[in-house]
Amino acid sequence: MATKREVLLLVGEDDVVLWSDASDSPVALPDSRARWEAIWSRRERIVEIAHSHPVGPQAFSREDETTMAALVTALGRPITFSVVAPNGMVRCNKKNDEAYEVTLVESEPWWAALLRHASSMQAPDTSKTPKTPQEE
Questions:
Q1: Domain total for the chain?
Q2: C-beta separation of 11 from 18 below 8 A
Q3: pTM of the entire structure?
Q4: How far is it, in rounded angstroms, from Cα 8 to Cα 52?
């Protein structure tokens, strides 16, 4: 069985995956210069930053929240963040350091299945495998 690990995707318009990164840990995605450079070089095209929590929770950690605040400040604009966990997905549109709302995602984007696969998770319900934008 493959080792579970956190994986991150930078997502652009129309659910295009712009870049990805992975850790060796199922519970952490340590800072990396390459990731910050990837974010900065794609800052105009990023609409969502998604990462996995392969062993849960289906929620943003305190570390996630402080990273999200730093990214919104650095980018100078609101951005959507998401966590894909074994049993579902949550999203947050972070407007500034304090204003955000977390919502449960009922219809997951196609790349959520890719993120689960890369993280060695199983989809919560394989009968609801999301379609790529081209398949819709």
A1: 1
A2: yes
A3: 0.87
A4: 7
